[in-house]
Amino acid sequence: MMTTDGQTPAKVAERLGDDEIHVWRLAYDHHRGREPLIHMLAAYLGQPVAAVQLEDSPHGRPTLAGAHRDAFAFNWTHSHDEALIAIARGISPGVDLERMRPHPKALPIARRYFSPDETALLESLPEALRDRAFLEIWTAKEAVLKALGRGLAFGLHRLSIAGSSEWPVLGRLEGHEAGQWQLHRLALGAEHIGALAWLGGPRRVRLWTLAGAP
Q1: Which keywords label this protein (predicted)?
Q2: Are the CB atoms for 124 and 56 separated by under 8 Å?
Q3: Domain boundaries, the chain
Q4: What average pLDDT does the segment 19-24 reach?
Q5: pLDDT tens-digit profile of 83-122?
Q6: The pTM is what?
Q7: What φ, ψ does residue 129 adopt, rounded to 5°?
Q8: pLDDT per residue as tens digits for the range 118-128
Q9: What is the CATH number of domain 9-209?
Q10: Taking the alpha carbons of 190, 33, 16, 149 in that order, is the dihedral positive or negative?
Q11: What are the tens digits of pLDDT across the range 44-67?
């Protein structure tokens, strides 16, 4: 594995600071399952692939297990032919990715599962801008739920996203102090939309791309 600027993930891993989050962008083939994730985790652990042990939380989030359980936290997501992996120490990051595509049912979904403010925003937009705005809200919500260690079953209506498209903020999270959370929009170009979330103070987000990713 090599980054687009000629570095290995193992070399990048050596520079993971306690005030950073590393996010990796890579090509993905669903036939490979968790193989790309395992290889990346091995690079950060400085261990062979066979040494990586994972276990799933009650809500399905994979975590490190065994001797390396507390080395760092990670989260990953994939959409079509691309994936993102987020790695950090001291926090549990949540990351979500969607490929840009038409969503003819965006408004019905929003009216059922989004907050009134989120729905009103989507209703106010011209149709040409609505699909992207819908996915920006969706990925931000998903990233928070993943960082929380929960899935969609927690309920999209129990949190709301405020702020702007470029600088989203968590406006409300039922049962939690929303102001203690961070949201970060990932710059992935016109074809993909990604969001990163974590509970804690601001951190430097570093985005790396593996050679071969779109």
Answers
A1: Transferase
A2: no
A3: 9-209
A4: 98
A5: 999 999 999 999 999 999 999 999 999 999 999 999 999 9
A6: 0.94
A7: -105, -10
A8: 999 999 999 88
A9: 3.90.470.20
A10: positive
A11: 999 999 999 999 988 888 999 999
Give 69's contacts (C-beta < 8 A, 6+ positions apart). Answer: 63
Token pair listed for 170: 């968590």
Structure tokens at 130: 């609505």
C-alpha span between 176 and 87 (Å, rounded)? 23
∠ Cα 187 190 194 (to 5°): 45
CB 94 within 8 A of CB 197: yes
Contacts 24+ apart (CB under 8 A), 103-108: 103/130, 103/131, 103/134, 103/135, 106/130, 106/131, 106/134
Q: The tokens of 29 are what? A: 């083939």
Q: How far is CA 47 from CA 3, 81, 138, in A?
A: 19, 27, 35
Using DSSP's 3-state secondary structure scheme, residue 26 falls into strand
SS3 at position 82: strand
The amino acid present at 207, given as its one-letter code, is L
